[in-house]
Amino acid sequence: MNARKNFIACAALLIALFSATSTFAQGGRMMDTAAMRQRMEARLQKMKDDLKLTPVQVDSMRVIQTDMQGKMRDIFMDQSMSREDKMAKIQPMREASDKRVEAVLGADLFKKYQDWQQANRPQRGGGGN
User: Fold this and answer.
1) Spatial contact of 24 and 30, defined as CB atoms under 8 Å apart
2) Phi/psi at 28 (5° precision)
3) 107 phi, psi to nearest 5 deg
4) Interior CA angle at 128 toward 25 and 75, to 5°?
5) What is the average per-residue pLDDT within 104-123?
6) What phi-psi label fits residue 118: left (phi over 0), alpha (psi between -120 and 50 degrees) or beta?
7) What DSSP string describes 24-93?
8) Burial class of residue 1 in the structure, from the number of CB atoms within 10 Å of its CB (0-12 exposed, 13-18 middle, 19+ buried)
9) Cα–Cα dist 73/9, whole Å
């Protein structure tokens, strides 16, 4: 009888965890990795077309962006850090990523890339106080 109660308790816990995870993901706080990859590929294609990147440059940009996304995801998932601490930790990573991008694109194309980024920055909803 105790084994049955333990089984039911474990099953209820798993259902609760699954429900919480699903709700969390649907709330927009976590994005499906397939959707993230698809969005990144679309952005890379637009970047390739707009900046006239070579296939080698596109592949290099994909590696840099994938690396950066993984590191940022780890930081944002760390609940022990404040938002300010997360931003402070990400800033040097962005600078290092920019140096890698500049090495791939060269100085002139890197400037165009920075302008392109500003013009193609995703619009964030919400705002307010």
Assistant:
1) yes
2) 90, 0
3) -65, -45
4) 40
5) 91
6) alpha
7) HHHTTSS--HHHHHHHHHHHHHHHHHHHT--HHHHHHHHHHHHHHHHHHHHHHH-TTS-HHHHHHHHHHH
8) exposed
9) 32
Q: For helices 55-77 and 33-51, what crossing angle results, to 10°?
A: 140
Burial annotation 35-47 (CB, 10 A radius, 16+ → b, else e) = eeeeeeeeebeeb
Retrieve residue 29's tokens: 């706080």
Please give the Cα distance from 118 to 69 (Å, whole number): 18
Cα 24 to Cα 41: distance, rounded to the nearest angstrom: 25
Which residue type is seen at 75?
I
Tell me the C-alpha to C-alpha distance, in Å, between residue 71 and each of 44, 74, 98, 103, 115: 19, 5, 15, 20, 24
- Answer yes or no: pTM beyond 0.85: no
Query: What digits encode the pLDDT tens for the residues 1-36?
Result: 555 555 564 444 445 444 444 444 444 445 567 887
pLDDT for 70 equals 86
* CA–CA gap between residue 103 and residue 56 (Å, rounded): 13
